Fold this sequence. Notes:
Blueprint: E1 3-5, E2 11-14, E3 19-20, E4 24-28, E5 31-40, E6 43-50, E7 58-61, H1 64-67, H2 69-78, E8 80-81, E9 84-85, H3 88-109, E10 114-121, E11 124-132, H4 137-147, E12 155-159, E13 164-166
Antiparallel strand pairs: 1-2, 2-8, 3-5, 4-5, 5-6, 6-7, 8-9, 10-11, 10-12, 12-13
Amino acid sequence: MSTVILTHTGLEVPADHLEVVSCQELALARGVAFKAPVRLRGQMVGTIENHGTGADSHFVPFDYDTYGEQWFHEFVAACRMDGAPVDAPHVLDWLMDEYDTVRAVAAADLNRQRTVARKIADRFTLDLAQVRIPRDQADRARLATELDRSPGDAVWQLWTGEHWEPLDSVTE
C-alpha cells in the first residue's frame, strides 16, 4: 500500500486517505465540540466528531457496511508517525490538525506580508497565529517574546512556505 506524509502534521497515511472537508464547532463550558465531514477519493464517507468533554474524537461512517469499524481499523493500522504505529484518537486529531493548519496557511497566504506560526508540543498543534515575517534576529527575538506567553515544553515554529522551522532558527 502506498502512503503519503501530510505536509503540516507529518502523519503518514495511506495514499487514499480521509480528508477533512469542513468543521462545525461549538464552544462549551468544558471544551469545544465539533463535527467535521470527511471524504475519501472525493466521496463523503463520514464525520470526525468530538463532544467537547475531554473524551477522544471518533469516526462516524455514513455507510457502516463499507466504511465501518473494520475499514477504519485497517486505515488506522496503516498510519504512522515517525515510522511508529499510532492509535485512532491520535490519527483523528492529526487529521483535524492538518485541516486547521492548511486553512491557517491559506489565510496567511492571502496577505504576502504574513506567515503562520504554530505552537507545538508532542507533535500536536496547540495554537496557530498569523504573524509578520521576521526580518532579522532581533525581530525574531521580539516575535518569540510576543508569542511565548505560556510556560511548558511547547515551541513556536514558522511556516517557510515549504516546511516548518523552529522560530529561533528561521533563516533570513
